[in-house]
Amino acid sequence: MKPYVLSCDSHVVEPRTLWADNLPASMRDKGLATRKDEKNFFVEGNGKTLLKMQVADGVSGNEKLGRFEIDLRIKDMIRDGVDAEVVYPTVGLMTSRLGDRDLEIASCVVYNDWVLDHFKSHRDIFVPAAILPMCSIEDAATELKRCVDAGFATAMIPGRLPGAVPSYNSEQWDVLWNVAADARIPLILHAGTGGETTMERGNGAALINYMLSGRGPIDAVAYLVSSGALDRFPNLTVATMECGSSYLNYLAEVLDEIYPAHLHYVRPKLSRKPSEIIAQQVKAAFSHDRSAVENRKVLGHETLMFATDYPHLEGSFPHSRAVIAENFRDIDITDSEKADILGLTAAKIFKIANPKVLTEA
User: Fold this and answer.
1) What is d(CA 361, CA 359) in angstroms, rounded to the nearest whole number?
2) Burial class (CB in 10 A: 0-12, 13-18, 19+), 122
3) For residue 260, what pLDDT band results from cuts at 50, 70 and 90?
4) Phi, psi of 141 (to 5 degrees)
5) What is the pTM of this model?
6) Torsion angle (degrees, nearest 10) of CA 134, 87, 345, 149
7) What's the rounded Cα separation, in Å, for the pair 209 and 201?
8) Is residue 202 within 8 Å of 257, Cβ to Cβ?
9) Strand 33-36 to strand 40-45: parallel, antiparallel, or no bridges (unpaired)?
10) Contact partners, residue 226, CB within 8 Å, separation at least 6
11) Taking 70 as the threshold, does the pLDDT of residue 145 lie above it?
């Protein structure tokens, strides 16, 4: 029987006029919006260009029909062998770059209300993630409380923080960690969120920028482990998306090495080894990462989850079955471990009570 496959990283494309139609009237001319010209795609907001990227032809002959509509999305999932998805925004990923507190808060509320309603009839298949205003820690905690009460099972925090707020090793963040831990809400760190995505230009830039986009979440995990944030909140889970999973072993090893060596200087002292904290409270989703599967016993296979990154170019659609097969090819792994990695671990942390297989092999 085909294992249950849950993509922990997929995206929905919001209606073009979502913010223009739903923000308070005084903000609508500053709301998030997109436009295209012959060569480029732009995301704009608050009078600024927040993202500019070349229009790609990588979807030629491989259209992602479900970017907008749920019924077509489910058809794409069945075609790809995927049974459920955790869903993140597309344009909404830019909210933390708006640079206006009231606009950012209102923009997050508009998206969160829309996405929860959009998927309300399919919550056994789709887990929409809330986005939080990061203009202040208190604002993020307030919106997370509202989203928990509304029924969200997860929320995003940016890999790179805007300069006006304390870094993730500050205890000021405990107010947010407390809300998430009490509600057993995993917090998602997605590559390319919060900071500039184009850091290099010229030779190799396309590859370099993609690699650098994953550094934010990886660095954030190091901050959360080293600062004692996860140690103080043992019920808090964080998960990284689009950073691969192999980095977890390196991070655990280097922090375990340095912790006793520099113990005199370490503040605060941790109640567990860094590797134990990572093994118990950090998850990392991957599309292509054979080395993570091969070395899964270092931290335990429960740290690993699968993702397709639908509908993005770097995602595995419509070849996810082949990608999954390659990830496990010739590796001595039990069916139980494989089932956990492909979907059951994620179903547990994202609160899908009765995972159902939509597709056959």
Assistant:
1) 7
2) middle
3) very high
4) -65, -40
5) 0.94
6) 60
7) 8
8) no
9) antiparallel
10) 169, 255, 274
11) yes
